[in-house]
Write a structure and sequence with these properties.
The protein is an alpha+beta fold and 160 residues long. Helix content is 47%, strand content 20%. It has four helices and five strands. Strands 3-2-1-4-5 form a five-stranded antiparallel β-sheet. Strand 1 (2-12) and strand 2 form a beta hairpin. Helix 3 (72-100) runs antiparallel to helix 4 (104-136). The protein is elongated.
Amino acid sequence: MNETEGLVVRVEGASALIQANRQSSCSGCSKGSSSCGTASLLGFFERQAPLYKVRNDIGAQPGERVRIGLPDNALLKGATAIYLPAVTLLLGGAIAGHLLGTTAAASEAYSVGGAVLGLVLGFFWSRRQSARMNAGGTCHAVVLSRINPQSVVNFYGDHQ
């Protein structure tokens, strides 16, 4: 299970909106490094931590710090459901368009048209798969536990 900590911002029925800090493997995003292109783009486009809708089985309330988890296979399932159909249909459309062309110029135009058509169909297919996965509930993040404020070590002297 992939886990991180976050702050409950709002509760909506059986779900909670959690504000969690982004994490990266190199920690460049947290340092705001100007030498990293990804950190620079993230700083340009997004100013605050995003909110994540999470299943709230423990009844956490706004203002509480919680530990949230995502099943290990959920990330792979989600990435596969989103990217694989789009890429497969893009390539399939390009190949089909190429085979339909009778001359080199027509073959190239049909390839581009087939690729665009395949990509659009792939996006719609991915959206449908994503909705199906959300309805099934197998790939949802969940609130695992509350974080006791007394157990948090704070080396800066300010109170949480």
